[in-house]
Amino acid sequence: MPKTRFHALAAHRRPSAVRGPSAGVILSVDPDRFAQVVEAARRAGLTVTGEQQILGALSGTIAEDRIPVLEAVDGVESVDREQIVRLPPPPDAPIQ
Question: What is the phi/psi pair of residue 80, to 5°?
Fold first, then answer.
């Protein structure tokens, strides 16, 4: 199916929705420019899932190939991938 102009516009507006696999990320950002950095991160392709302005932290998802673009956003101090830690049940305790 050929791409229409609508598809091209949608791809431009939502880069994370048209790329490969996505990753959960946590950003440390300049708290003095929080709103501007959040908007710039969205333009870079971040889908924001949480904002902690007082801490200068932001979480969201982004296409894997857009992470370098996100890291280059002025005001982004670091980008860390979300990590899920699963602990096994204690060895001598019954599963509840």
Answer: -120, 140
Spatial CA neighbour of 56 closest among 26, 81, 83 = 26
Q: What residues contact 4, with CB distance under 8 A and at least 6 apart? A: none
What pLDDT digit, counting tens, does each position of 31-68 carry?
999 999 999 999 999 999 999 999 999 999 999 999 99
22 forms beta bridges with: 63
* Six-digit token string for 40: 């710039």
Q: Mean pLDDT score of the chain, rounded to an integer?
A: 82
Q: What is the average per-residue pLDDT within 71-83? A: 94
Other CB atoms within a 10 A radius of the CB of residue 66 amount to 19
Around Cβ 79, how many Cβ atoms within 10 Å?
21
Closest CA to 67 of 58, 75, 78, 55: 78
* CB 63, CB 16: distance < 8 Å: yes
